[in-house]
Amino acid sequence: MSSTRRLGPNAPDTKKTGGFHDKAYDSDDDGFETVASDTTLHDIALKVDFFDKAKTEAFFSSNIAAFAAQKNGKRNILHDIAEESRQQIREQYSQYKERLKVILTNHPSLLSGQNEQGYTPLHCALSKKNKTFVVTATENPKIKEDLGQIFAKQDNNRDNVLCWASKLHYIFLEDMITACLPSVKALEQRDVHGNTILHLAVGNIWDRDDQRDRQLSLVGLLVKAHSKVLTQKNSAGNTPFQLRQDVLRKGGRRDSNTDKISQLIKTFCMRNLARNEAIDALYKTGEERHLEFDLAGLPNPTITTEYLNSLSGHLKFESILKYVALPKLSIVPDDGYTARIENGMEMKAGKKKKKSQKGLRDMETIFSWLKANGVKQIIKVIVVDNGDVAHTDEAIENCLSDFNVEIWNWKRIDLCAEVIQKSAGHSVREISLYSSGNNAVLSSWAGADGLGNPENFPLLERVNLYVQEGLETSQRLSEYIERFKQKLRKGFEERKKPTVCHFLDTGYSFSGSFATSNSNHQSEHAWLKTMDHFVECILQLLPEDPKKDIKIAVIDDGVDASLESVKGKIASGNSFCPYPNSNDLISSYFVPSSTSHGTIMADLICRICPRVKLYVARLDEGYALHGKRQITAKSAAAAIRWAVKCGVDIISMSWTIESTSNDSATASSNALNPLEDLVSALDEAGKSNILMFGAASDQGSASKICYPAESDKCIPIGAATETGEICPWVHQGQAKYTCPGYKVPFKRGDGTQPSYHNGSSVATAIASGLAGLILYCDRLAGSDEDKKLKSKKGMSDAFFNMSIVPSGDMKFPRVGQFFTVESSEKEKWKVLSQDDAEDESMMTGTEVKEGLSPTARNKLNDILRRLKEPRHGAHS
Question: What is the CATH number of domain 527-663+672-819?
Answer without folding.
Answer: 3.40.50.200
